[in-house]
Amino acid sequence: MNRTNKNSDNKRELRNALGQFPTGVAIVTALTENHQPVGMTINSLTSISLTPALISWSIDHGSASYEIFAKTESFAVTVLAENQADLAMRFATRGADKFWDLEINPDVAPVIPNGCAWFKCETYRSILLGDHTMLVGEVIEFDTNPLQPLVFKGGQFQQPGQMADVTIRAAA
After folding, report:
1. What's the pLDDT score for residue 105?
2. Of residues 166 and 133, more confidently modeled
3. Pairwise CA distance, residues 5 & 18, whole Å
4. What is the pLDDT at residue 19?
């Protein structure tokens, strides 16, 4: 059955349909004006450009951290490893003590330890789009670990081994 989205009556159905696209899971962090860390789980991370190095993610205007992220001059993104679903859930929970067991530097947006990759960014641009704001960051520093990523599909966390093993070969 084909559905249209001319009204908001089918938001749940649209969300379920979009959930069929597997995404990576990341935690984005920043500091408040008082150098208190804030963070949230995201699955909207996108590579925009290599020159300059730009990535983006989107935040709902109803998010508890919206004002902080909308005003921040810098942020960090950590791509989570397959064994970090507990951290993804903690950072997705409103009001949770998100940083309670993490060693962080109070002078910079924290990087979550033991992720697949991390990116420290300066805010390059923010774009108001519907009920979200897209934050574009210029990557200032990054690193990777040879770990498998945590994946989100159909409203559930999945490990890459649970998904079909597909090899893509470049055209000769």
Report:
1. 80
2. 133
3. 12
4. 67
pLDDT at residue 10 tops 90? no
Examine the pLDDT at 3 and tell me if it is beyond 60.
no
Per CATH, domain 12-162 is 2.30.110.10: yes
Question: Sign (positive/negative) of CA torsion 122, 128, 129, 133?
Answer: positive
Task: Give me the amino acid identity at 157.
Answer: F
Q: Where are the domains of the chain?
A: 12-162
Give the chain as a 3 state SS string: CCCCCCCCCCHHHHHHHHCCCCEECEEEEEECCCCCEEEEEECCCEEEEECCEEEEEEEECCCCCHHHHHHCCEEEEEECECCCHHHHHHHHCCCCCCCCCCCCCCCCCCCCCCCCEEEEEEEEEEEEECCEEEEEEEEEEEEECCCCECEEECCEEECHHHCCCCCCCCCC
Would you say residue 166 has pLDDT above 80?
A: no
